[in-house]
Each structure stands twice: as C-alpha cells, then as structure tokens.
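Q: What would this chain look like folded?
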Amino acid sequence: MMDAPVDYRRLNNMKLGDVLFSQRSVRRFRPDPISIDDIHVIMEAAVRAPNGGNDQPARFLVITDRALLDRMSQLYREAWWAKRHDAGYTWTSIEDIPPEEKNYRAAARLAENMAGVPAMILAFGRSSEDGSSVIPAVQNLMLAARGLGIGSLPTRLHPVVMQRVNELLGIPDSVHLHLLIPLGYPATEKAFGVSRRKPTSETVYLNHWDQAVPWS
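A: My prediction, written as structure tokens:
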C-alpha cells in the first residue's frame, strides 16, 4: 500500500540558506493547531535523512491529541526538574534560577508551559546505538518545520518518567526514545533569526587538531 502523495514543493518557498541560517530553538509557542498536511510534509522530510545502510531504524510518534499533550506536558515538567536535581542544582522553580542563567530560565519556561504546544513528536530507534540515524532524521524534521514557519527544538526526557510515558502512549519495550520535539508556531515574530554561535575559526580545524582554518 502506497502512502498518500505529499506536496513537498511548499518547502521551496524558502531558500535552503535562509532555512539553515535562521533556524533557532523555539521555546514559546502559540496554541494554533498544525495541519495534518504540514505534519505529513515534516515527517516525509524526516525519513529522507541519511541513515546507515538504509536500515531506516528511526520510528516516530506524533501527538496532537489535547489530553495526551496535557499529560505529556506534566511528565516533561517533572523530567526537566529531575534533570536539574541530578546535575546538583537546588532550584525548584523559575524564581530560584539566577537571572544570569538565561538559558536555564528559558528552558524552565518551556517546561512550565509545554501544555500549550499543539504537537509533539517522539523520535525512537531500536536502541541507543541508532542515534547516528535518528538524529539526522530529527534535524531534517526541524528544518522542514522551519521552512513551514513552525518552530521546534530537540529535548530529552528523564528515566523517572519513562515508564509512565511508555504506558500512556503504548510504547513497546523494543524501542528506545532518543528525542522529544515540540512543534508550534512561534509566539513572537523574532523567534527565527541569526543564532549566536562561536566563530567557526574557534571550533573547526584543518587537517590536524588545533591547526587553524584559512578563514580565521
């Protein structure tokens, strides 16, 4: 049985360079629903990513049901704070996070407001060893979402919630969760744009470790 055809040409509305260089992690979303046609395009882009031996180990679970999203948001919040506890932080609320810890405060706001996202995608492999195939698929997924004006970011869960997640969603023991990706239209117009990154002359070497690239 063949899948329904997908009009991927809608992704041609943005040039590849514009997509790559304006993609950011989006943590604040509008509640507007995402059409199933757009989700279809996004998932078709995901499975086009390279993977070892064309083995195609990646599997995805798309969540759009409001009741499931609400329950997953509660589990995500618990997982986020559990990870902070494991890292040795004593924070229990956003107010406890120092103002200078801007990245943590932004991530905490996502954890506290995940209930408002219109969709989540869970990306699985058969084991933790399938990351080299699952992660490129997730990047394709997020780039396609960006091309449609939809924000996203890759996140993880914590073992403390995994049994409840598996039971809630009927996830079999034969798969391993790699990433959870919330999807939604950004709450602000400035969500996309140039990202702050270290110069590549500091992070890229040529031919030998610590040998400078010619553009430094």
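The first strand starts at residue 59 and ends at 63.
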